[in-house]
Design a protein that fits this description.
188 residues, alpha+beta, Peptide Deformylase, five-stranded antiparallel β-sheet, two-stranded antiparallel ribbon, 26% strand, hydrolase
Length: 188
């Protein structure tokens, strides 16, 4: 296992739909192991393969429930069913979201309160997750990465402009920007 660099907004792999996994061999297992190690070191509650430069439909997650029961896993070739999304303005405290590919920045975004994710585990067994609350937010966020979308792409004003200004200020929004968890001093 190894920690991989996390690419920052502007890297083309983050802005294009990913490819279905067709090879379920050693390379996939190594990718998933590296994703878990990278996610843990960042630290993050989720990590999608494009965030480490790999254009495959894979994401990992780690978000315990209210009783601290572990919810940790990988979803390969997922589909997502989304519940209704409120038309209310996003709340700056309860709807604030961040991303390892826009490190150190947080902006409010309305998401559905419940989702169903279906896909496959590492052994190609079908899985289904019904998630609500923040766990549903994580599922939507990571799935968006597989569709070539970052949460900042979904922001409404004035937050969209604020995110654009931050990206410009840090010199992101172009290929070649990344950071290495555990090495680079970035507050993700």
């Amino acid at each position: 296992m190894s920690i991989r660099s996390i690419v920052i907004t502007g890297e083309p792999v983050l802005h294009n739909r990913t490819l279905e996994v067709t090879n379920w061999g050693k390379e996939l297992r190594q990718l998933v192991a590296d994703m878990f190690e990278t996610m843990d070191e960042a630290p993050g509650v989720g990590l999608a393969a494009p965030q480490i430069g790999v254009a495959l439909r894979v994401f990992t997650y780690d978000y315990p429930d209210e009783s601290d029961n572990p919810r940790r896993g990988v979803i390969i070739n997922p589909t997502l069913e989304v519940g209704p999304i409120s038309n209310e303005e996003p709340d700056e405290e309860t709807d604030s979201e961040g991303c390892l590919s826009v490190p150190g920045e947080r902006f409010p975004l309305k998401r559905a309160d419940n989702v169903r994710v279906t896909g496959f585990d590492l052994d190609k067994n079908p899985i289904q997750i019904d998630a609500d609350g923040w766990f549903a937010r994580i599922m939507q966020h990571e799935f968006d990465h597989l569709e070539g979308m970052l949460y900042v792409d979904r922001l409404v004003e004035p937050y969209a402009s604020m995110a654009s200004a931050a990206i410009e200020e840090f010199g992101w929004g172009k290929p070649g920007c990344s950071w290495l968890p555990g090495r680079d001093d970035i507050d993700a």
